[in-house]
Amino acid sequence: MANKFFRMMSVSLFFILLIGCSKKENTQNAASIDTSKLQTVDISGQKVFLKYKFKKNEKLRYKLTTITNSLQTIKADSLMKSTADQTLTYYFDIEIVEVDQDNVAELSINISSISFDGNINGEKNHYDSKATLSKADKDKFGEFEVIVNSPFRARVNQKGEVLEVTRIDKMVDKMIALRPEMQKMAADQKVALIKNISEGEIRPRTQLLFRELTTNEVAKDSSWQLNSPATIAVFQIENISRFKVEDFVKVGDDKAVKLSATLTSKWTGNKKGSQEGMNFLFDDPKISGGGTILFNIDKGLIIRSETSTTIEMGVQVDGKDAAQKMRHTFRKDLSTNKNIVELL
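Above: the chain's sequence. Below: its structure in token form.
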């Protein structure tokens, strides 16, 4: 069915151009930093390693703001337009539980607060996890209710890669409480649900808090790239994130590096397809993005990041309606997603 293909096109891509942060003396609050006005530090051609420096019992706090704007147009007998704008704000409280001999840290993470404001074609919605909600609102915003104040664990290495997410049992219990029909799940279904939440939701969201860095030494104008796969509609996407050292700067009493990031992509897949008597022809997917990242070299933490991703996709659907009359429909989706992570 056409709707099946349309739903696949609605997948949002959150590329991992985001950061982790901590609160320290002599370190500016990320919200107050203007990266264009930071003082350059002369390191006289030296090269440095960019590593996360996790310390046992250290406590970190992150603010993640995700702003999404989308426009959908459908042209058939007439032209229909749909707009959606939303802002999501998360507060992450993190404690470093342990750091092993390989410098892999085990983190205890709690999303202590979530707020949401959305506007879909003029219809506004608001959610605040700190407010008292009716049962209807808890059901409506169940995806937030499940994860807020449901602590979990994550293992992260010194280059910022999230290796594993565990202890999400509380989230599953809250989900079942909101959906009583799920209480009759078989054991294997519950295992599959845990894996889906862990790998499909929590791990990617946690990875947004850390920028995976290069293992090589860097100097001014050094660059590197990271490739990651994704699937959108009928396409297999290879996302290519390129990073460049723009400058070494002073933040408080610490040295920091200012990185630029750009996103491009390559795709493979059959643009044509047929299903249940309908023919589909997809346009080439267009994916781009970029932003800036500020990494504290001395503290081994990213202070601030602001990055964005734009996705544009189109598809033409040809098929007969109930009266066996041929219909031609073209749908275009344009979505921009901005992620801001700040040190608090």
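DSSP finds five helices and 15 strands in the chain.
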